[in-house]
UniProtKB/TrEMBL annotation:
UniProt-recorded name of the protein: DUF6817 domain-containing protein
Domain DUF6817: 157-190
């Protein structure tokens, strides 16, 4: 039995590491098309992978001058696909861990993260407490949950999704309580208030009959209402204003983490959908740690073909996320 438990713990932590990479990629603003475009820029030999000399050109795109030591250290930090070469997946992970971009992947917007050689993945994994790891390891979290943005062919588990949502929230500067809610937002054993309110928030209409919901209540309202969807909840659940931003961050981190590669490829369409749904609460989001993400969405929409703008602004986000 102990050996089986050890294997289970190792599997959960392995999936969790995938989740950190996925969350970092999304919070850093990298869509698959952006990474492929950068790979084509660097790959002068057409191998769909880059060697150390080709990878060194990435420093110029970051506005940095890499000497031999810098170039070797940065190349060594990229997971190799085969000896001496880094492919799409390895480049994606390096970019997510070491740099930031915008949703459209404009090379001119590429810049270095703070703490360039910091172990970002290790930092996010270390932030999960022993108690939280114990809960994750007791749950059956191996089920397929969403497509992985870095490696779509790889099964992505619920454990990976939960850790990824926590990563996005942490990157957005959310507090520990919100990050913990992100880690367990789909696990109903957790009874923290944000987790309790997440499902009602997820089911809340963008436009409510009384104009007092999560999305359409005035930004300065003293409270707002969510639909009661869980057993024992009233038909309308009144929520204090101080929980509005945490729920909005939790909603969009969860949504962003489950966006399909196709949705991210159509960056302007996804961005317009987010901005349309959030139009009343944009001041709250813009003033939060997610403000940079929101600003990048606006830039993506502004750069989109003007002829498609009317289609984008009429989009309503369909369905609900888990």
């Amino acid at each position: 039995m102990p050996a089986r438990d050890d294997r289970s713990a190792e599997r959960v932590r392995s999936h969790a590491a995938d989740g950190v990479d996925h969350g970092l990629a999304l919070a850093s603003g990298f869509a698959p098309s952006a990474v492929r475009r950068l790979l084509r820029q660097l790959d002068v030999h057409g191998r769909r992978a880059v060697n150390a000399a080709e990878f060194r050109r990435l420093g110029c795109l970051l506005g940095e001058e890499w000497d031999d030591e810098d170039a070797a250290a940065n190349f060594a930090a990229a997971p190799p696909s085969r000896p001496g070469l880094v492919d799409y997946g390895g480049l994606y992970r390096w970019l997510a861990r070491h740099s930031r971009c915008d949703l459209a992947g404009d090379p001119a917007a590429l810049r270095r993260r703070a703490g360039p050689r910091e172990d970002v993945v290790g930092r996010h994994l270390a932030a999960i407490s022993d108690t939280q790891w114990a809960l994750l390891e007791r749950l059956d979290l191996d089920c397929r949950h969403r497509s992985d943005v870095i490696a779509p062919e790889r099964p992505a588990s619920l454990a990976s999704h939960l850790v990824s949502v926590r990563t996005i929230l942490s990157e957005w500067g959310a507090g520990e309580a919100v990050c913990a809610a992100g880690l367990f937002h789909s696990v109903y054993e957790t009874v923290e208030r944000l987790v309790y309110l997440f499902q009602p928030a997820n089911a809340c209409r963008v436009e409510t009959a009384r104009g007092d919901g999560l999305w359409d209540a005035p930004a300065d309202a003293g409270s707002f209402f969510l639909p009661g969807v869980l057993q024992g909840q009233p038909a309308r659940v009144e929520v204090p204003a101080e929980l509005r931003l945490p729920l909005l961050l939790l909603y969009w981190a969860n949504d962003l983490d489950q966006a399909t590669p196709r949705e991210l490829e159509c960056g302007a369409e996804y961005a317009a959908g987010v901005l349309r749904q959030s139009r009343t609460v944009l001041p709250l989001l813009a003033a939060s740690g997610a403000g940079e993400w929101v600003a990048s969405l606006s830039q993506v929409v502004e750069r989109a073909d003007a002829g498609h703008w009317e289609k984008y602004v009429k989009l309503a986000r369909g369905g609900t996320r888990v």
